[in-house]
Amino acid sequence: MKVIRAEAMGFCFGVRDALTLAGQVAQPADVTIHGELVHNETVLHGLRARGFHLSQEQARTRLTDSPMVMVTAHGISAHERRRLQDAGKQLIDTTCPLVAHVHETAQELQNAGFFVVVIGRRGHVEVCGIVEDLEQCAVVERPAEVRTYPHDRLGIVCQTTAAARDVADIRAAIEHKNRDAEIRFVDTVCKPTKDRQAALEDLLDRVGAMVVVGGRNSNNTRRLVARCEERGVPVCHVQSAADLDPPWFEPFETVGLTAGTSTPDDVIDDVHAALTALP
Fold first, then answer.
1. Angle at the Cα of 107 (from 177 to 218), degrees rounded to 5?
2. pTM of the prediction?
3. pLDDT, tens digit (0-9, with 9 covering 90-100), for 31-53
C-alpha cells in the first residue's frame, strides 16, 4: 500500500513553543497546567509523567494548591488571568500569539462599538477565553445558527482553528440576514490551520482513503476528519499507531496521511511506519 504524506501537518509553532516552555520548567510538581496544554493524549501523558498537575478544562474554576499555573496555548481571558493572579499564583504563559491576536481583535471591535460574533466551537477553551472578556457577543458554529442581530454594527472574528469553508459559509449567512448592518470581518484563522487544510485538499483527489492523526478533543484535527467525510473519502482518525485497524485498509491501494497541529512528529512517524508495513 502506498502512503502519501501531506505537505503540511503536525505541530504548529504555537504548540512547539508551549512545549518548549514546559520543557524548561525545573520543578514540574510545583506547576498546574490550566487545562490541556495541547489537545493530544500522548503529549498529556508525557507531561503527567514528568510530574505536572493537570486541571480538567471543565473544572478550571477550582484553584489548585500549586504555586504556579501554566496558561495553555489556547489562552485565557483577562478576567481569568486576574483571578489567578489575585489568588497569588505565578503564571507561566504559553498562549499562542495568534490566539492573543484574536483576543485583541475582539476587544478592538467591541471598543469601536461593534457587537462581536465569534465563529467557532461553542465551549472550546479558546472560544471561552475570547468571549469571557466581551460584554455581549454571539458564538456561531454553523450557518443555520445565524440570526438577525439587533445591532447596527457587527464585528466578526474566528477561532484560530476554524475551517475556512465554515467561516466563509457563516460569514455569508451573517451578511445575508443582517443586510442593514455595518459588518466588519477580521479573518483570524491561523496560517498553520489554513496550511494543513490546504494540504489535505491537495491529497483528497489522489488517495483512496485518509488517515488523520490527532487528539479526540483537537478542533483542527476534527475539522480535517470532517472535511474528508464531506468529500466522501473514507477516513480513519487515530491518536497513535496502536489505533490502526489493518483490515480496514485492505480495499485501498493509496492512503493519505495528515495530522492536526497538536500531533508530535514521532507519533506521525510511528503511524507512517505502521501503514507502510501493511501488505
1. 75
2. 0.88
3. 999 988 888 888 899 999 999 99
